[in-house]
Model the fold of this input.
Amino acid sequence: MIQVHWCRINKSSADVKARNEKIIELSQKLNDAITGGNAFCYGYPYMIAPGQFQWTFIHHGDTPLYDVQVRIHDMRRPVLSGSETLQLGTLFPGRSHSFALPGSVSTRTPVQAFNLFFVARNGSWTQEIIDSAPMNLNQAA
Done:
């Protein structure tokens, strides 16, 4: 009789533990869905014409990113005048913002250097881009 009662307690305890673990898992999924979880985005200079590009922002992760904004600092310009801030809004998994954002088109020069500072509901992160175009050997003297 005591043995049977002990088995029921162990089984009941295991059921409670499994339910608690499921509640924790679902709570984490809900939190990730609300905040953006571990998702992030990054900027990519997309060529739109010879010598011109616009910024494309690519989502990476399983959950949407909310309230995204990015400050782009052009390292070739002075600190106070070399930045612009773009409001990206919500970015969804598998999608990107790849349309002309106000002030996002910049002239291409042989060396591009940018710092991107992102802020979203789930936190902040940075990206550094340094790109040097290959030298045209026909122009070398």
User: Anything to note?
Assistant: Residues 24 and 30 are 10 Å apart (CA to CA). Strands lie at 40-49, 52-60, 65-74, 83-91, 96-97, 106-107, 111-120, 123-132. Helices lie at 2-35. The chain has a mean pLDDT of 79.
